[in-house]
Amino acid sequence: MRIVCIGGGPAGLYFALLMKKQNPGHHVTVVERNRAFDTFGWGVVFSDATMESMREWDPQTAATIEDAFNHWDDIELVFKGRKIRTTGHGFVGIGRKKMLNILQERCLELGVELVFEHEVQSDDEFADADLIIASDGVNSRIRARYEDVFRPDMMMRPNRYIWLGTDKRFDAFTFDFQRTEHGWFQAHIYRFDDNTSTFIVETTEDVFNAHGIGEMDQDQSIAFCEKLFSGTLDGARLMSNARHLRGSAWLNFGRLICEKWSHFNGDSHVVLMGDSAHTAHFAIGSGTKLAIDDAIELTRQFNAVGHDAKSIPAVLEAYEEVRRVDVARIQNAARNAMEWFEVVGERYADRLEPEQFMYSMLTRSQRISHENLRLRDRVWLEDYERWFAKRAGVDPTPDGNVPPPMFTPYKVRGLTLRNRIIVSPMAMYSATDGLAGDFHMVHLGARAMGGAGLVFPEMTCTSADARITPGCLGLWNEDQAQALKRIVDFVHGQTPAKIGIQLGHAGRKGSTQRGWEGMDQPVEEGGWPLLSASAIPYLPHSSLPRAMTREDMDRVVADFVAAAERAAAIGFDILELHAAHGYLLSSFLSPLTNTRNDDYGGSHENRARFPLEVFRAVRQAWPQERPTSVRLSTTDWHEGGNTPDDAAIFAAMFKQAGADLIDCSTGQVVTDDKPVYGRLWQTPMSDKIRNEVGVATIAVGAISEADHANSVIAAGRADLCAIARPHLADPSFVLHEAAKIGFEGVEWPKQYLSARSQYENNLARAAAEAAGRK
């Protein structure tokens, strides 16, 4: 094949040499705008995993690169006058120029044609090529030419950064955070050769402008950074090799994704690779990794399908399918890390102590978890667990052991939970006329014995017309109260768990069939009138709700108060108000469902007026020594709906009204929302509200193992974790997760103690067998 790589960065060069190595009959050319063996930039970072792949595909190149690498295991934080260091992280750094020179030399050895100092204007220059690799960077001219095909989405991020170097030799990947009178700056620092380190300085746009950096030239902005980080530089100077940039040389990072990566231009197949297809923020150092992995995967597909022109369409289709998944995973992690640095000042640096700030920084991408940190640096993590436990009021045992974060107690008002795990309210649709029966006793009793610190029945409705379905629980009469009291008494009498009540009103989502009969589908007979903020049905064929009148509001407030009083009398430990998921109170909060033009619609204050009225009345009726929480949809996942910023405003209002916790769920307000699912996918909203609003939070959403919960709680992203589906599959989820991580300090029901050792031994045996297979 005739192959042309436009752009001589890591993607183009590495693909060129791999293809030439796989089939020397290919005619491969790399065309680069810069001079031979010339490049811009300082150091790049690889993980050990990337090097393993390179050793597999071209050992000679990998060996040469490794000889030039600077390898380090340590990460050091400089923060609030402290230096904290942890090890075991396995990074390698190399000068960008050195790396490209190695790739260029290897290309020449293999017979790749290198053309320098040639600015490619169009892919038409290579009409004889079978395959054109558009590896010409984030500002790709080739991608721009076919913009309607590739459909790129470029989002410029708000932070400013400048990419510098220094001749100081750093022996750890160092993060230095410095506060000025206008806000925080951070430096990302790592050594990439024997004499030089990369030194990236970053800050927010507001801080950048407040210091007038945009009015400085490069020398002035460099002098500013030298003074700011003088303690870390210790007399060393900062250097720039971007004199081609005008002004202060500070940039905004552009996050790029493309809907499509390949195109047939009539003569040649054109495919995007590296930064021309996607970018990943330097906060996790994966830009070069993505480029190398692109080159490897495209080569792999040619090996699988065939090294000939007729195979190209199938190869490109498979290449994009495979790479899109991995790139999305890396970009999601990079986005998490990038956003952490974008809000680090007010959200974390001003709030967290150095120990927890370090943990939060290490886990910022959500790719590194609690147990992964234990594998990397057990000593550091155990020290941190002791620090965390001490703040939860737990002293180490004589051997120095403490519970992991999820098993530390949590105290709020007069309530103390034995651990941080909640059995989330989950609709069971199994009540008769709102009455809890034997099913609810067994369901909740089993999970209370299963180790959770707090269990909730499903959303309990405050009136017959507040139900979602005919099978929903209620608390609008004394018979229902006595049925629930039976369960409350069992939990208190037979388990160390606590039990809460979640009160709610279905609003426009009511009068529907039980979940297994037809989720959200209207009942066929025996329905009831619906209320909502506005007369908008949930589904086109749902019953039309009535926009609430003041008389309706008075009645609903009274119903909530009466239910709260009954819940208090029968001994529930905590009360949660359901103001999420499109139910009645949520319908007032969201502009998608609230189109009122009176005092209850429009502004945040107006949309929150009635939900706050309900909450204040409930809070007054609820015993002062018992806590309250509010469940919010912290984003509607829909254009024109509430965003996390809106949710933070509402959370602050409920906090001021007396809420002790905000339960941070999302979505389900409208049927055509577009949630972005994934591991811990709703935790960022909890993180935002907890650390910006300053209120305790409950995290929910794809938290499915102890490692997840420990990571969330230890980082300060939430105070409690509510776990739903894992508890449906395993009533003893918490006991079993404790056994899986080797924590022996959790109490099993005395009736079940004989099974504990067998369960733990089976886990140990399975782990040993798995290790043997490796």
TrEMBL record:
Write down the EC number. 1.14.13.40
**NADH:flavin oxidoreductase/NADH oxidase N-terminal domain span:** 406-734
What top-level branch of life does the organism fall under? Bacteria
The reply to whether Acetylation figures as a keyword in the UniProt entry is no
Where's the FAD-binding domain?
Answer: 3-146
InterPro entries reported for this sequence = Aldolase_TIM, FAD-bd, FAD/NAD-bd_sf, OxRdtase_FMN_N, YqjM-like
- What are the protein's GO molecular function terms? anthraniloyl-CoA monooxygenase activity
Protein name per Swiss-Prot or TrEMBL? Anthraniloyl-CoA monooxygenase
Q: Which organism is it from?
A: Aquamicrobium ahrensii
